[in-house]
Amino acid sequence: MCGIVGYIGGEQAAPILLDGLAKLEYRGYDSAGIAVYNGEEIRMVKSMGRLKVLNELTHDGATLPGTAGIGHTRWATHGAPSDTNAHPHFNETGSIVVVHNGIIENYQKLKQKLIRRGYEFRSETDTEVVAHLLDYYYKGNPLEAITRMMHQVEGSYAFGIMFQDHPGEIYAVRKDSPLIVGHAEKGSLIASDVPAVLKYTRSVYFIENEEIVRLTQDEMVFYNIDEEEIDKEPVTIEWDVNAAEKGGYEHFMLKEMYEQPKVVRDTFSPRLKNGDVVIEELGMSDEEIREVRKLYIVACGSAYHTGMTCKYVFEGLARIPVEVDLASEFRYRNPILDEHTLVIIVSQSGETADSLAALREVKKRGVRVLGIVNVVGSSIAREADNVMYTWAGPEIAVATTKAYSTQLIAQYLLALKFAKVRGTISDVEFAGMLEDMERLPEQMEMLLSNKERVQRFANRYLAARDVFFIGRGIDYAISMESSLKLKEISYIHSEAYAAGELKHGTISLIEEGTLVAAVLTQEDLFKKTISNMLEVKTRGACVLAVTQVGNTEVEKAADYVIYIPKTNRYFTNSLAIIPLQLFAYYVSIGKGCDVDKPRNLAKSVTVE
Ligand code: M6R
């Protein structure tokens, strides 16, 4: 996730900006830059790579004198990591400069309009649109230009902005991306997050959606989008620097679980337009979509589990046969591929060695590959024929949660698109599913707010030796992911089984007190799975059920039930996984494990 800093005051700005950016490094970034106003002109230095490069280029800030400035660490979304795409971005004359965190969803449309008005673009970013748009609206009043720009842009944003003919002022504004401001003895500061300002002040203002702030050395004035002045109360930050990096959460994993409603919305919202699913980056005509006769979803670990779920979604909605394969197997098994095959490689990092090798194998055979990738400009993103990005932002905890959730959403969208084009879904069902998708973030929030209940249950199983997860269909896929979450961060042995398979061998492992977690989200399979729960319960198992609200019948076979809200049958994974992620998390911290960095694991597996 990008990081923004800004400073205006009596000190040299550049060293303060560089220091603030260093405090935001934990957010992940691929390039960095700062712009400083020296009283005559705004000068900028930006570069790909670590902050060290920026420090060297500016001699730790000494080559950019001036007491007002903005800075940025970029985590690429639109346009690969490069010097040119790094922030800040100028208007054409260099009199307005902008840094941005977020995604401008309608940037293509705005860009075309601006090009028609004669603006020239230097970068591939969505942000540059805003620099030119501000230029277009600027008639001497920064506040007016900013509010007019806000009325035009759709999506999420936090901006830091400077205008050359308004020395002594910085502007900041936000919608759906975090931004704070603080006033210190030495001046005023803006930042994406608290750690960047803690050295100077503990009293900060959280900017709310569509609020604007004008900062000078001595004061901060807040406005709403109607340019009316508003009052805000500061908040005193009690956290230490470590906790502040995690937004006050104890661990990155918990923070990332709580980001899920937002990133899920960020992933579907730009692709839902006027009651339709629009995936411009798919690069396939309707004719080509109709010609696909077979899909392969190829991935590793949790990404593979999203494919296991989405096999049911694609087959159910679009009626295309789907094979889901572990990349490490696929690459060596000489799969049958032809011109009617589409291969989808799913990867958070875009660098997983087996997934990348599988992609290359497919390309060698001249078959089309679509990447579903989180890291912009990563190897899989670059080498796939087309890439659909998940907008999860950088994920720091080794155990994936938010990237997993966005991978599901990307595949739901694809399945819906394919179903619509192939005529395998009715208009009513399609419209209903889009409504259900839009409700998911709120439903996820509701499940997250029940974390204490899950924690109490988890605390009873800190000494568990084995835990089994069972389910049928999509619920089996959810079980696989839940089992992986638990074992990777708590080191408790765990397996997932298709519930109907238990009696073919596994049931002999059940003894008094063994925990079996059953997932029941598919109405037509409730009765079947309840029978399997009874089979293990009568053999002494303690049964946890995760099921849809209303399925009270489950209570006769479960010792403990977690209900999830109703949603479309194909979307249930997105909700059922939340309490099961929380369960794994609380078992892990209850056991004192290093939840963000489990032993023997790496975030990105770049070796075979
Ligand atoms: O970066 P990728 O999505 O390609 O990574 C694939 C797996 O290594 C990954 O999902 C792994 O299983 C998770 N860290 C599990 O939480």
Q: What structural keywords apply?
A:
608 residues, alpha/beta, eight-stranded antiparallel sheet, seven-stranded antiparallel sheet, 27 strands, globular, binds 5-amino-5-deoxy-1-O-phosphono-D-mannitol
Short description:
The strands form five sheets. The chain has an eight-stranded antiparallel β-sheet, with helices on one face. A seven-stranded antiparallel β-sheet has the order 5-6-7-8-12-13-14. It is 36% helix and 24% strand.
Description:
Strand 23, helix 16 and strand 24 (493-498) form a beta-alpha-beta unit. Helix 4 (127-137) packs across helix 5 and helix 14 packs parallel to helix 18 (572-590). The chain is built from 18 helices and 27 strands. It is of the alpha/beta class and 608 residues long. It binds 5-amino-5-deoxy-1-O-phosphono-D-mannitol (M6R). 5-amino-5-deoxy-1-O-phosphono-D-mannitol (M6R) is lined by residues 300-303, 347-349, 352, 355, 398-400, 484, 488, 604-605.
Cα-to-Cα separation, first versus last residue: 28 Å
Unreliable stretches covering 5 or more consecutive residues: none
The pLDDT mean sits at: 94
Estimated structural class: alpha/beta
Taking all Cα atoms into account, the compactness measure Rg is: 25 Å
Number of helices: 18
Helix content estimate:
25-40%
Gross geometry: globular
Oligomerization: single chain
Catalogue the ligands.
5-amino-5-deoxy-1-O-phosphono-D-mannitol
Strand arrangement, major sheet? 3-2-4-1-10-9-11-15
Q: Give the percentage of residues in beta strands.
A: 15-25%
Tell how many strands the DSSP assignment holds: 27
Q: What's the story with the biggest beta sheet?
A: 8 strands, antiparallel
